[in-house]
Model the fold of this input.
Amino acid sequence: MIMTPTTPDGRIRTTVPLTLLHATHHELDLSDVGVFVGAHHVGPPIAAHPDVRGVLVLATCNRFELYLDADGDDAVTHAVAVAAEAAGRPETEVRRLLEVVHDGDAAHHLFRVAAGLSSAVVGEQEVRGQVRRAVELARTQGTLSPRLHRLVDAALEASRDVARRTRLGDAGRSSVGVALDMVERLGVRWGEARAVIAGTGSYAGTSLAQLRERGCGAVAVHSASGRADGFAERHAVEALAAGGMGRALAAADVVVACRGTGMHAITAEMLAPVMERRDGRPLVIVDLALHRDVEDAVALLPGVELITLEDVGRAVPAAAVEDMARGEEIVLEHLAAYRAEDRQRTLDAEVVTLRHWAEEALERELARLPAEGAVPVEHAARALRRLVGALVHVPTERAHAAGRAGREDEYREALKAVLGIEAP
Done:
């Protein structure tokens, strides 16, 4: 017998659970978020669990998020275990770092993230591309379930609508781009400048791309964690030796610091003797870390211009309070439409069952037709298929209407009472 889907405790499942496990810069130091730098490709092993239908991984320099289309606590426990193994950390630590959000709140979170409302620089549009790339990776890996696909499509549409209907889009360039605009206004000529990037994460890749786009060809990368060689090989730039930061600072015109470990990569004590050797040449330092890479006292050194993420936020064209509020309203509009669509689809299994039931009836009728006769089989088959389509049209529409109205259980009971069938 075809059975109705139920939860582990035997209740009829009226919605498909959505769970978000995330660690972001809002709740944690970037060093804690950085725990997951090795966990970017955990989708397939998580999706291997029998209770998991789909996985979407959104991993950037300041957030790590797992969206699970899955049933039960076992799926969440499995996801944490896989993430812990990939990060090389104990499960207890990873469980402490990952906040768990369910269903509508998880969807709302993704909508706000895609719209740039959860970014360090409100309205930042770079995150939309990060979401799209996460979707492409999930699709390539075969972990993108239909429900997750619909969720992300709706979130990206909300993001585009926020950009169209508010001025947040005007302020939505990446924080890297805004910072480098500020550097230009200080008189740096990119074609002649030497740049040093401190860090090898996502911000480092974005910074390098922006520097090259502006015509800066002399770029070196430094990493205290030993990742400079790999980054340099992938991006065709110079890798600085672990002890080579001082010499690089002496020759550089611009430094972009984006490690975000919570420890200072550049201190006044380190930089003061370097500035004395520069013969008065100015040095511009951009600190893009939420938890500062550059000591505050560095800004007091003669010849140093320090641009922090706070400066970037102030330099972005002001997003009026009403624009931010309007952006939140637009997100809620799209979220309500998504939820209505999602509720409508809670009876998809019943609709499929109904169609299978009708098709079985059709096959039985076709089997009764003679191989030869006055009415060709193909004509009769077309007629019967049209009949079946007509028969299932109204029940299908009623199923969608019942889902939108929150009356799924009534429809299931009616389906069983009238037709004697149950969805699997």
About this structure: Strands lie at 18-24, 52-60, 63-70, 99-102, 194-198, 218-222, 238-239, 254-257, 283-287, 304-308. The mean pLDDT is 82.
